[in-house]
């Protein structure tokens, strides 16, 4: 029987966050500063160690110049593809 691979929300969020951050040319430190968050928090999100609040997601999206709905859609698509 073949094992079904499942991508967790944390994993998808980590990948999409990092991809969008790098696309904007931002370091974890710069994104954290712009969002008024600690740099380690961005690192923890990208390593699947934390779950952001909705408020944090909105701050991150604003500073990555991406609509929150588009960010969430990217996460959903990644989860559905796996």
UniProtKB/TrEMBL annotation:
GO terms for molecular function: DNA binding; DNA-binding transcription factor activity. InterPro entries: Cro/C1-type_HTH, Lambda_DNA-bd_dom_sf, TransReg_Diox_bact_type. Signal peptide: none annotated. CDD domains: HTH_XRE. Pfam families: HTH_3. Keywords: DNA-binding. This is HTH cro/C1-type domain-containing protein. PANTHER family: HTH-TYPE TRANSCRIPTIONAL REGULATOR, METHYLPHOSPHONATE SYNTHASE. It comes from Clostridium kluyveri (strain NBRC 12016). Residues 17-71 form the HTH cro/C1-type domain. PROSITE patterns: HTH_CROC1. One of its GO terms (cellular component) is cytosol.
């Amino acid at each position: 029987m073949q094992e079904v691979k499942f991508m967790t929300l944390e994993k998808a969020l980590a990948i999409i966050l990092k991809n969008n951050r790098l696309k904007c040319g931002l370091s974890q430190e710069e994104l954290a500063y712009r969002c008024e968050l600690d740099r380690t928090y961005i690192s923890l999100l990208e390593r699947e160690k934390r779950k952001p609040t909705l408020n944090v997601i909105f701050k991150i999206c604003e500073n990555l110049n991406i609509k929150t709905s588009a960010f969430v859609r990217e996460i959903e698509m990644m989860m559905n593809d796996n």
